[in-house]
Amino acid sequence: MDRLDRARRRSDGFTLIELLITVSLLAIVGVVIIQTLTTVTRSEAYQADRTQSLDSMRLVLNGMTKELRQATAVDDVNSSASHIVFTTYVRGTLRTITYDASGSTLKRRLDAGAWITVQTGLATTSIFSYQSAPPVPGAQWVRIVLQVEPRRDPETTLVLDSEVNLRNRVQT
Amino acid sequence: MTMDRPTTSSAARLRARGEQGMAMVTMLLVMFIVSSLVVVMLTTQNHTATTTARNRSWGAAVHVAESGIHQAIAYLQSTNGVPPTGAQSGTTAEGTWQYQVTPLPRKHYQIDSVGTVGTAASLTASRRLRVILAPPTSFRYALFSLSDVTTKNNNVVCGDVWANTNVTVYANDAVRKGDSADCPTGTVGSGHVTAANGWIAMEQGSSADGDLWSGGYDSAGTAITIGNNGVVGGRVRASSSTPACADDPLHSRYSVANNGTITGTVTAWGSITGSGSSGTRAAQTCTPAAASARMPVFSWNPANYPASSLHTYSFPADYAQFNAYIDANRNGLQGTFYIEGGSAATPIDLTGVSIIGDTTIVATDAPIDASGGIGAANTSDKVLVLVSYYSAPAASCTTTGGNPGDCAIGFKNNFDMSSTSLSGGSNTAALLFAPNGPIAFKNNAQFNGAVYGNNIQIKNNMNVAYDPRIDQIVGFGDVTLDIKAWMECAPGPVTTAAC
């Protein structure tokens, strides 16, 4: 008799209540899973973009620091917060290097050569500031502040800075 | 009797209904999500850590290389310029360095240093620095006088002129900037004229490409005079060396009299008069004068010169011997000559001497003279340095313009080493240094270099152009060696010749 009851109970369908609860739970779990997967994917993409931006900024900042450290003089007349012209050693030879920030792009030029884009996504074109060492006129230190907005997350601003002492600066 | 299995819990009911797989699927999904998150985080952190470490190694490598540079400098100073043989190496807490010193001509040294930081292959950074050491910079002006500078009759100075007292630029004479068409290629200077505590007289038709800056005034109270058709390319300042110009409260002195053309602004504590034209004028405006400048310090050290070409004499005992050597080498003089003692009776007579290489003559008491010219016998790059501590009043040198015994250094007739470029022609740079007495030139002195004297008088057809080869001469300056150039080269062994 008990065996018959159990067999009959196994063959019964779900009640409507059970089905509704199950579907609701599955829907909730599904939404959570999809949202989590979306977040993970977005987070991965954001991190990759952020890392790429930081890597690019480091390269640019290190390059500028290296070039400015060897500089003999900054062209004070033609330099500003978004534009710098300086004479420096490149592989042991004195050359003129120019950086120009315009819009969201930072470009570099060697002597009178072609402009080459070295950084995109600038949050501001105000990059360079100058400090003199009296009584010698002109810039002795140059501070570089690079601010970049990653492409996938423009609400975030990455900031790297460097203060460079011109090692070959001489009084003219 | 029948035994029922307990069916009280829901789990048991689910298992009983064969739905136990849902838990596993859910757990797998959760584990997948968590694992993904962990992988993303670990990847990011790993990249960040690696990048930061590599960046740190790259930044530290240059400092480690600098440790090698400083080690090399300390070694050179301790040995008075004798470099170590081969490459030297050492360590710091950050990494290892290796340096090599290569002696260059004229007491210059090239130091190459490589700094290496990090051991793991991906985190190792190596940077190579090259530093050029040289005697400190001491000479910036074409003409420098502790008192007056006076030119007369057809002279052109390319570079800057400094006098602690007065400057007279004679009619039609010129002080040019380095890139002027009147100057040899490679000349450095702005064409400035400074009279720190004195007045400046630009006579009619004279010109200066740069600024005029005075700190005193003449007997009429005039600080700067520009004659008819005089031209000044820069600005003009008549300043006072007294703070706040308190020495002349009525503005009766420090005036500018301009009958020529001034391109820049004119600023004077006194009045601004004359029929000439100028930029903005600001009379009765106080500006501080330039401070008086000192003569660079010279220290004799025989170790600074090649022993093989070093000659030492004591005057008057060795006077005949010295003259015999000059006679024997008059057509090809080079080397270092140190002459102790002497007087106006034993002048160093360089008449007719031609130099063939770097030549330094240092006289502690004797004057240096020439009548009939000094020249160069070849076109090789060379420097002539003449130092005389002979003391004489400026007045004794004024009228004769360089006769023996009158001046500390006096050249008459054809002191000629110039050309259209500094490296052309005789390719010679000359430094004349007399801190205690006047230096005078008369008749056709044409050379590249600089003149530093207690007083300077120039007469008849002189062209002098500042040559930067003489800005760093061994023996001059407060320190033995200075860093002339600091550069980073492409990574490579310390023995790499190219930068």
Description:
The complex is a heterodimer of chains A (172) and B (499). With 172 residues, chain A is α+β, with helices and mostly antiparallel strands. Helices cover 37% and strands 35% of the residues of chain A. Chain A has helices at residues 2-10, 16-69; strands spanning 71-74, 83-90, 93-102, 105-110, 116-120, 128-133, 136-148, 158-165. Chain A has a five-stranded antiparallel β-sheet, with helices on one face. In chain A, strands 6-7-8 form a three-stranded antiparallel β-sheet, covered by helices on one side. The longest helix of chain B is centred in the N-terminal third of the chain and has 58 residues, at 21-78. In chain B, 46% of the residues are buried. Chain B is flat. Helix content of chain B is 16%, strand content 35%. Chain B is an alpha/beta fold. The model of chain B is unreliable at 1-7 (pLDDT under 50). Chain B has helices at 10-17, 21-78, 319-328, 395-398, and strands spanning 88-91, 95-104, 108-117, 125-134, 143-145, 149-152, 156-158, 161-163, 167-169, 174-176, 193-195, 200-202, 207-208, 212-214, 222-226, 231-232, 236-238, 255-258, 261-262, 266-268, 272-273, 281-282, 310-315, 333-341, 348-349, 354-363, 368-371, 375-376, 382-388, 409-412, 415-416, 428-442, 445-459, 463-465, 482-489. In chain B, strand 2 (95-104) and strand 3 (108-117) form a beta hairpin. Chain B starts with 9 loop residues before the first helix and ends in a 10-residue tail after the last strand. In chain B, the strands form two sheets. Chain B has a 30-stranded parallel β-sheet that branches. Classes of the chains: A alpha+beta (172), B alpha/beta (499). The A-B interface holds A 2, 10, 29, 33, 36-37, 40, 43-44, 47, 51, 54-55, 58, 62, 66, 69-70, 89, 91-93, 167-168, 170 and B 2, 4, 16-17, 26, 29, 33, 36-37, 40, 44, 47-48, 51, 55, 58-59, 130, 137, 483, 485-490, 498-499.
